[in-house]
Design a protein that fits this description.
By secondary structure, the protein is of the alpha/beta class. The protein has a domain of about 70 residues. Helix content is about 10%, strand content about 20%. The protein has 2 helices and 3 strands. A 3-stranded parallel β-sheet has the order 1-2-3, with no helix packed on it. It is globular. The relative contact order is 0.18. The C terminus is likely disordered.
Length: about 100
């Protein structure tokens, strides 16, 4: 049985918890799904080499990660699902910064 929650009431916030991963994960070039990882250090920059990802989920994203995140995502040509969770309510990500171009077959 599912629920039909459309919004969380004030005072209740959802927090996604990600897993801390070693930077060596970026060597797994053929990995297709990576969720949910915690943004720390330079991991967002490193995952740009994982070009076969179709699903990516990142928690603890901060405004300062925006540039590296955009650059990494642009390398992921087959990415179809992206989940981002900001570090806290004070962080703000500019959605327009994530400009994707889709190529039709």
């Amino acid at each position: 049985m599912g629920t039909n929650i459309e919004a969380l009431p004030r005072g209740i916030s959802g927090k996604a918890i990600g897993v801390r991963i070693p930077s060596s994960i970026s060597k797994m070039k053929k990995l297709q799904s990576l969720a949910y990882i915690e943004s720390e250090g330079n991991i967002i920059r490193l995952i740009g080499s994982m070009t076969q990802l179709t699903l990516l989920g990142i928690t603890n994203v901060k405004e300062r990660d925006e540039e590296d995140l955009c650059a990494s995502i642009q390398e992921m040509n087959v990415l179809s699902r992206l989940f981002l969770f900001v570090a806290d309510g004070e962080e703000f990500l500019r959605v327009e910064a994530f400009a994707f171009t889709a190529s039709l077959p």
